[in-house]
Amino acid sequence: MMLAARLSRPLSQLPGRTLSICDRENGTRHTLLFCSASCTPLGHRTYASEANPDGSKAVLITGCDSGFGFSLAKHLHSKGFLVFAGCLMKDKGGAGVKEMDSLNSDRLRTVQLDVCSQEEVEKAVQTVCSSLKDPEKGMWGLVNNAGISTFGEVEFTSLETYKEVAEVNLWGTVRTTKSFLPLLRRAKGRVVNISSMLGRMANPARSPYCITKFGVEAFSDCLRYEMYPLGVKVSVVEPGNYIAATSLYSPERIQAIAKKMWDELPEVVRKDYGKKYFDEKIAKMETYCNSGSTDTSPVIDAVTHALTATTPYTRYHPMDYYWWLRMQIITHLPGAVSDMIYIH
Ligand SMILES: NC(=O)c1ccc[n+]([C@@H]2O[C@H](COP(=O)([O-])OP(=O)(O)OC[C@H]3O[C@@H](n4cnc5c(N)ncnc54)[C@H](OP(=O)(O)O)[C@@H]3O)[C@@H](O)[C@H]2O)c1
């Protein structure tokens, strides 16, 4: 009965939120922050619950050695959060770690954290607990940002590679979330998972990455449903192309992946596709290294909103017009139509 009543609720009674746009001039394209709710441009939103400078709003971010994680750690610190910056290279003295440590702030603490290691994740939970004034009150936020990427058509990609990427992007997210949930539940806090536009739509030669991000989306949706009655809010941020701004790809990394891939290819695949075809694909991939937006602020703004707004959005889409439109077409129109536009 209640379900029938809900389903038959007139549209006018639904919360008045559909789509939001934050327009940023960036390079040749406008980078937008679209969200799956609200008509308010993100830049005009109010941050309903400002971070408490006494450090009660503690947030742990994974993958802070570089890229989004590094910028986000510094940004949230500047907003007054108590930031635990999980770094893969803390013990090895990575450059990002040194820069954050040099701020000498009590509210920005780097923590050794490989999301593939249960032991390191548990140690990070202990570190957070022992730093909180009152661990019984829990921890406000977790941002699952750590990630790696690779490329290669299905026939060029080894099962080992699929597993390696999933270990960080998917199982790392699941492992870290499960370990921090008791603290997050106590604070009725926030989980923000960094997925990707490739977690919503597939792309050729990106299957090892896409499947992990589709997994992050599914995990986030299940968690959001489960946590709703417990007061923990779960958001997903789906960045578009920011390759030029982060360390996800470099020409050296692409060459190293390509060499390993070719060396390990089954003979039948090498013979059928040929080296020329393979090299052309690698050259195309190399052209992506300098592609995309160099301004990561739409991503940083999205995560900040998800952590601070009274009603955070389910999904944030910081991406340019081209990718946003493509994602709408692929996710809303029949496959035959989107295939005709983007594949055939
Ligand atoms: N850049 C884009 O265009 C884009 C688009 C959509 C989504 N994303 C997502 O955004 C997130 C951040 O990536 P980014 O673009 O900022 O690239 P990035 O600069 O390479 O940052 C990823 C970070 O994760 C760290 N990391 C790798 N393996 C880890 C592990 N096992 N445990 C903990 N940390 C680990 C990396 O450390 P090291 O540097 O030491 O390896 C690096 O600091 C990723 O989830 C990525 O999939 C990026």
UniProtKB/TrEMBL annotation:
A biological process from GO: steroid metabolic process
Q: Which Pfam families match?
A: adh_short
Please give the chief subcellular localization of this protein: mitochondrion
Q: Which reaction does it catalyse?
A: (R)-3-hydroxybutanoate + NAD(+) = acetoacetate + NADH + H(+)
Keyword vocabulary terms for this entry: Allosteric enzyme, Lipid metabolism, Membrane, Mitochondrion, Mitochondrion inner membrane, NAD, Oxidoreductase, Transit peptide
**Listed InterPro entries:** NAD(P)-bd_dom_sf, Sc_DH/Rdtase_CS, SDR_fam
Enzyme class name: oxidoreductase
Query: What EC number is given for this enzyme?
Result: 1.1.1.30
**Source lineage:** Eukaryota, Metazoa, Chordata, Craniata, Vertebrata
Similarity remark? Belongs to the short-chain dehydrogenases/reductases (SDR) family.
Q: According to its UniProt record, where is this protein located?
A: Mitochondrion inner membrane; Mitochondrion matrix
Molecular-function annotations in GO: 3-hydroxybutyrate dehydrogenase activity
Protein's UniProt name? D-beta-hydroxybutyrate dehydrogenase, mitochondrial
Q: Which GO terms describe its cellular component?
A: mitochondrial inner membrane; mitochondrial matrix
Oligomeric state and interaction partners are given as: Homotetramer.
